[in-house]
């Protein structure tokens, strides 16, 4: 029995993506992380970091948690932190889907919107969170560099996938934001199956694809995806074990987002759609092989409805709803 929100994090279902499996002759699976209590995979990072801080005496009753976030980690910290008696403050870039701000504000979170600036700028949401921590003595979760993020994915997400697939998994495909999911899960699965292929997915505007293929962190363009893609190597990402990398465009992501909604009944967010598009492209390379390809359905599409389900927004970005090729 799960009596608390804290207890309900993890053990999410693994869904077989029937239409894509039939198209490719492979077995495609998506782990339904939108079924966590805060609605995203970031609940796992939040739980791992809070648990670690409590165990080390860094978080005490009545403390304040502060974090720089694109939204989902802030929501996870709020859902779990409020239940455990903490106050939560988040700094967020001011270009995220309005649903995220509304969700946080409904819980009484102190949301501080900051301009979208390069990481080197002190006004970046990451640096703003650190500054508030230093100024007020608040506990800074520091999801990008905090190893408790990836360690919890190693302990929970990786183990769950291995058990749900009965040890038969051929390819892990995933994007990276903090690198916690990819870092933790790839380590767990590779330790049990060294032949497992791990494919990093990256949107335009991020530097991880270029880092893997050319050894330098560079990126061009931009993406409407939220919470994934970075222009630096975080401590969590450095621990990932990666074999290949693939760039996925916003147009490809949108095609998959609508395909999942209209064919699989899965209304997912942008990072989930990008993950599944990448998994689909990888599966096409192994067409007819029966290989098992797994990825993450990071959050629900309702969190982005004002953007990806708005025809005017899509048209303004030069994106169109087209059939999946």
What is this structure's SSE topology?
Elements: E1 14-16, H1 18-24, E2 27-32, H2 42-55, E3 64-68, H3 72-83, E4 87-93, H4 98-106, E5 110-114, H5 125-136, E6 139-140, H6 147-164, E7 171-175, H7 180-192, E8 197-203, H8 208-214, H9 235-238, E9 244-248, H10 250-264, H11 270-285, E10 292-297, H12 305-308, H13 311-316
Parallel strand pairs: 2-10, 3-4, 3-6, 4-5, 7-8, 7-10, 8-9
Antiparallel strand pairs: 1-2
Helix pairs in contact: 2-3, 2-6, 6-7, 10-11
Walk me through the structure.
By secondary structure, the chain is α/β, with parallel strands linked by helices. 42% of the residues lie in helices and 16% in strands. The chain has 13 helices and 10 strands. The chain has helices at 18-24, 42-55, 72-83, 98-106, 125-136, 147-164, 180-192, 208-214, 235-238, 250-264, 270-285, 305-308, 311-316; strands spanning 14-16, 27-32, 64-68, 87-93, 110-114, 139-140, 171-175, 197-203, 244-248, 292-297. It has a 6-stranded mixed beta sheet with strand order 1-2-10-7-8-9, sandwiched between helices. The model has no long low-confidence stretch (mean pLDDT 96).
Radius of gyration: 19 Å
Number of strands: 10
Considering DSSP H and I runs of 4 or more, what fraction of the residues is helical? 40-55%
Sheet with the most strands: spatial strand order: 1-2-10-7-8-9
Q: What is the subunit organization of this protein? A: single chain
The end-to-end distance, rounded to whole angstroms, is 44 Å
- In terms of per-residue confidence, which ranges show pLDDT below 50 for 5 or more consecutive residues? none
Whole-number mean pLDDT: 96
Structural class: alpha/beta
DSSP helix count? Answer: 13
Overall shape = globular
